[in-house]
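Catalogue entry: protein

Sequence with per-residue tokens
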Amino acid sequence: MKLMSRRARILMAFSFLFAFGVVFFLFSYGGSAARWATYPANRHLYKNGRLVNTGAIYDRRGETLLAVNDSGRKYHKDATTRRALMHLVGDSDGNVAASLQVSRSDALSGWNFFTGAYSYDASSGKDITVTVDAALCKLAYDQLDGRAGVVGVMNYHTGEVLCMTTSPSFDPEKPPDLSAPKYKDVYYNRMLSFSYAPGSIFKLVTAAAAIDCLPNAGGRVFTCDGRLPLPGGRITCMRAHGEQSLGQALTNSCNIAFATMAIEMGPDVLTRYARQAGIGDGGMRIDDIAVAGGSFDLSDASAAEIGWASVGQHTTQVNPLHFMQYVGSIAAGGRRVAPIVIRGVGSGFLDEPKVGLGRAAGDSLSKKTADALKAMMRDNVINSYGEGKLAGYNLCAKTGTAEVGGGLEDHSWFTGFLDSDKAPLCFIVLVENGGRGSGAAASIAKTVLAQAVKLM
């Protein structure tokens, strides 16, 4: 009797372990099956480490960005376009992790949750249509002219990314020797995977906090003598701006005015508004591709460090896509939309966009605050930057010049939007070590936007 009882307990223990194993497997399968099936060791889908029998990738107008057939893997017919879109489409060996060939290998291979990678069709892969425009990306890449940086353009109502171009890049159809210094970090999509010191474009965040949290911020006068001694250091400006309003301080990009506001508000307020802008939260994804979250940390910061953080220096780091989304929320009255790069997945070019365009991603700002920032950014253009060929589209913008140290030239930023119903576009341009933001980055942005409005 004791022997039977002991055997029953052992049997029950094995049964429990078996049931637990089944549940654990099913749970793991649900979350990881696609990644297991599309691992390069799977010879059903891969040959010599390269995905075969895949679907095609098309741009928003139906131009083929990638096609795989019996003769091999072919990218866009134009070499510059191939370079401009390499980081989004991906290289043939899967080295660009933040690319569609890696992140959506399940769809391209035709993997199915119930049937796996098996199909009666010889080529079972699904096709992907993206939101970007190949010609616009080519123009942006040409404008970067070999300099490291990013160019992004997005519809701030729908979230569709029309341009996502990163440099340096290379031709995925004819890869060069990538050991040369100019190809440093070439496998990284700088738009998605990098964070940078933002310089003065971060003053938009500080200005939003001031509008909400400083009494009568819009009616106050801030005085700049060119230097502001503080505990822990000092804040400096390029020149003494004298007396100025909040709006004038933004146009003048006055470090001292914004540092004064930040110190008065305190680190907790500034940190809260940085988080509302998506800086440091690290949770954003764009069509299954992780996006760098940036950083903002004022713990144990001195008064001078708080001041420098408020103007985009100290430890402040932003991701270009995150910040473009934030600027787009200013244009949209505080409403933040989720950016997308995939227009649809199916068979052939998909002319109709997928359901879910304009999916809300939370409010960054109140409408009152967004409208106040919009007016100040419009004044920046009228009084400082100029519109170029964008007259009639109500360009609103902010430059940024970020010090990077090490004897290197500053990073050049230009970001903003068109306050236009016919062309609801926000944008961001970064030229690494490009100098002042009003120079390199602003020129690129205006040229690319002049072409982008023609797509609307």
The chain is about 35% helix and 20% strand. Residues 2-37 form the longest helix (36 residues). The longest strand covers residues 395-402.
